[in-house]
Design goal:
The protein is of the alpha+beta class and 281 residues long. The protein is 41% helix and 23% strand. It is built from eight helices and twelve strands. The mean pLDDT is 88.
């Protein structure tokens, strides 16, 4: 996603500066990145990419395995990282273009982004969205000072999903992918939506604040190059309770020391290179 206003990177991931002067607030995505184990999905994906590259370059692999083994190993280890960074860069550009479209601002559409923006246009058309009437906010910063976190809501929008097609206020997060199904979501997406939904405050573009609007529905809008899907997810109080547990865990990890002194016996000599140690009294 785009780098939101007031957000900045730290040694412990993204944090938000509080414009009111309070302590920095950990980002919602940082909390989930710290607390949610993603190896079950990312590791098979990374292995698949690497294996496919090896099979596509099998003659080169066979030759370099003998003549250039060290450099080849480095390149193989880098394949999934490059693919991840490329996908993240594309996602950032798509998010920015979607934000500009929803705000009615001019923007350039590249060949790579155009299919995703077309799917956004289809979504708006199918739901009869008038951006001047129905879009409440796009890329708006949400704060929960009491709990110490902040995040950016991609979209707050009125959609006719209530009884008798009554308008309801949705909080929607965009997700982009070149490979996953448009119906695919991750469980932690629910916690992300709940964390934003139950923030205390939103920051307006002129730096003033307002109470967080009362959100009625939450969901993910998956944008793909050839399809899209709005997936409703229960970003409710139960999900927020689970997020608060992840928040405590992330805050503990971010505050924990990176090393601790080794414990030596009273008569044990100190190894020459040790600088961090403590002897039993």
């Amino acid at each position: 996603m785009t780098e939101p206003r007031y957000a900045h990177q730290t040694d412990n991931g993204r944090y938000y500066e509080d414009p009111a002067g309070g302590p920095d607030l950990v980002s919602v995505t940082n909390v989930l990145d710290t607390s949610v184990n993603k190896t079950r999905s990312l590791m098979p994906w990374g292995v698949k990419l690497t294996v496919e590259w090896i099979l596509d370059h099998r003659m080169e692999i066979a030759r370099r395995a003998i003549t250039d083994r060290t450099e080849l190993t480095k390149e193989l280890k880098q394949i999934h990282k490059d693919a991840r960074d490329e996908a993240a860069d594309l996602g950032t550009v798509i998010h920015h273009a979607a934000e500009q479209r929803l705000l009615g601002a001019p923007f350039a559409v590249t060949r790579e982004v155009a299919p995703y923006l077309h799917q956004l246009e289809l979504f708006l058309g199918y739901w009869g969205v008038d951006i001047d009437k129905h879009v409440v906010a796009a890329e708006i910063t949400c704060l929960h000072r009491h709990l110490g976190y902040a995040g950016t809501a991609d979209l707050m929008i009125w959609l006719p999903t209530g009884e008798g097609r009554q308008l309801e206020l949705w909080l929607i997060d965009f997700k982009t992918s070149a490979t996953r199904s448009a119906k695919a979501v991750y469980p932690e997406n629910t916690q992300q939506l709940a964390a934003l939904r139950y923030c205390e405050t939103v920051l307006l573009p002129d730096d003033t604040e307002e109470p967080m609007p009362e959100i009625q529905k939450t969901g993910v809008l998956n944008l793909r190059s050839k399809s899209h899907a709005l997936v409703e997810m229960p970003g409710d109080r139960n999900a927020h309770k689970a997020f608060r547990g992840a928040l405590v865990n992330a805050q503990w990890h971010h505050a924990a020391p990176s090393s601790y002194p080794a414990l030596l016996a009273p008569d044990q000599p100190v190894p020459a290179r040790w600088r961090n140690f403590r002897k039993v009294a």
